[in-house]
Every structure is written in structure tokens, then in C-alpha cells.
Amino acid sequence: MGSFLLRIVVIRNALLTLVAGQEVFDSPVRLMHITDSHISLANEAPPRSSRMHAAFSRSRNRETNAFTTPAQEFSRLVNLARDWNVDLVVLGGDILNFPSNRTMMWVLEQLRLTGKDFIFTSGNHDWLLEGQRGAARYDADRVSELSSTFRPFYEQSVSSVSSCYNNLGYWDRPGIGILYGCAVVKGLLLLFVDNSNFQVDSDQLEFVRVQLSNVAANVPVVVLLHIPLMLPGMKLPPKELCGHQHWGAATDVLWQVEDRPRWPSGNLQSTLDFRELIQAHAAPGPIVALLSGHTHEDAAVALSPEERCANGTWTVRSEGGRERVEASGALQYTTHTAAEGAYRLLTIY
Ligand SMILES: *[C@@H]1O[C@H](CO)[C@@H](O)[C@H](O)[C@H]1NC(C)=O
Ligand SMILES: *[C@@H]1O[C@H](CO)[C@@H](O)[C@H](O)[C@H]1NC(C)=O
């Protein structure tokens, strides 16, 4: 009962402040999406951190093919965000290679030096230190890591500011501002949902439902996830997608490599309902774009099931990805790994 009441209050606050704090959409809005950097400054917790640290100890810049490091590329990208004067840096998860306070502080310092506002949603590697076969669940450390190691990310993110709700959730029961949240950027509403465990729970679903059913007609919405939604046209295995019909214990190919408990048997109903909700509100509804990462590959696919190529009110231009896209219907964008210096610049106008 207590938590039910808390949820009502949190959601009502979300509603009141969103309506009260409405700004006029100040076109254009430019978002720089940086995802899957996989930064680890050191192999801090061997042997459990060794595999991931070795996998990303150096990389190659995908444009120049020169050797580089994920950290060097991250600095370069946030400096570009400053030079280009983007409105918001959108961090899509797996920015860290495994949980580390040292790496977390370094990343925040890079952002602070540029003076750029940012928003963050976590990825599956941010909170996973491999080698926990004895844990109760595959995502056992997610909430505890997000509310300890990653707490400064959420506190310094624009999602902690009360344009959509009055305050961050409780740290012992993370919810608003951590597992889901929003920010208003020049009149554009950006919603994030942490699906780094491949699922969307009923609180997250309810939050997004309330936001979408109350958004004013002149407010475009961008949704941020770590793991892309399974949509028609996405031909990837369950480990790459959220809502894949075969996701579950039988298709969990990494549990031994990552040395953790297996995924449960299948998707939550709320995950499938979330996808339906997003599709139902895609342009010409309010949602103009969905940003995701996780796969380390560029992609852009239609959000609407029937690919109606709808004429929305707004246009979204995407640059930086391998494909240059200009769309008035809503697309799900997946952005190549920033460990190789990739990014996506979305302009909504
Ligand atoms: C980071 O520091 C916090 C606060 O001291 C602590 O709770 C957390 O466990 C630390 N994280 C890691 C990965 O060591
Ligand atoms: C979108 O607009 C263009 C140009 O105005 C028009 O030719 C096209 O038929 C429209 N498409 C839809 C699906 O309404």
C-alpha cells in the first residue's frame, strides 16, 4: 500500500510539473547521442574485470582506422558537442565497461569541462562486474550499482532537474530519475527508460503512459533506451533486442562467458505493452525518434508497425551515422559504438 501511494504521488507530481513547466518548442533542438563507450581506465577488479577491460583496452577510430582508446574518443566527442554547441549530450548506456568509481568520476569530469548538459540511461555493462554466478538474478546488482556508483550521474543529469517532476526518487528504492525519467530541452520532451536488463517494468510503463497521454500538441518527444526494441526490420538475435519473442533462458548465450545467472524464462508483459505504447504514439503522434545503442552498429528502422512513413509535424535529421536520414515519420535509431569514435547528431525542427 505504501509503495502504491508513493507511486501515485510520484506520477501526479510528474503530471503537474510537466503541464506547469511547459515551454514552447524552440526549433531546432540538437541532441548528440553517445553510447557504448566501454571506458575502463584500469583493470581494477581482476580477475572479474579482466575480460571486459582487455576487450576495450584499445580500439580503432572507425573513420581513420587509427588506434585510439575509448576514453580518448569520449573526450573528443564531448569536445565536439561543445564546439558544435549541441543542446544536450545523450548518454545511451555502457559508457562504463564495468562499475568503477574512478572511471565514473573521470567521465563526469570530461562532461563538466565542456559545460554541456547531459542525460544518462544505463547499459547492461555499466552495472555488471562479471563473475557472480552465485547471485540471485542476472541483474542482481543493477539497482544497487545505479544508486551508488552511478548516483552522481543521475544527480548531475538534467533529468534530476524538476522540469518533469519535483525530485529524484528514493535512493533505496530507485525509480524516477534513475530507472525512468525525463527532461525538457527547449520545449522538446526527452523520456528515458532504463531497459538495460532487457525489460520494461510496470512502473516504467505507467510513467511513460502518463507522460504521453498528457503531452501537449506542440511538444515533440524523443525516447531514449539502451537496448533497441524488436521491430519489423530488426534481424538480430535476442541478446541484441528488447522484446524479442525468443528472449529468455534458452537463448541466453552469454551467461557462462559473463559468469552470471541465466536470464529468466521470457519477457514481461509490460515490456511488450511498452513497445505497443511507443508504436501507437509514433509520429504523426508526439514521438519523433527513439535513440538506442547496445548493438554497436548503426541502424534506422520505422517505429510504426505498418511503416506508414507518416508525415509528422516535425522533421528529424540524423548525421554521424553511416546512413544520413531525414524523416518526418518516427524512426528507431541505433548508434555505433563510441569506443570507435562514433556518435549520432539528431536535429529536430
Ligand atoms: C563507489 O562508491 C560508493 C560510495 O562510497 C560505493 O557504495 C560503491 O560500492 C562504489 N562502487 C564501486 C564499483 O566500487
Ligand atoms: C506526405 O507529404 C507529401 C508531400 O506533402 C505527400 O506527397 C505524401 O503523400 C504524404 N504522405 C502521407 C503518408 O501522407
Automatic annotation (TrEMBL):
Pfam families: Metallophos. Residues 30-297 form the Calcineurin-like phosphoesterase domain. Residues 1-21 form the signal peptide. Gene3D superfamilies: 3.60.21.10. GO terms for molecular function: hydrolase activity. Keywords: Signal. This is Calcineurin-like phosphoesterase domain-containing protein. It comes from Effrenium voratum.
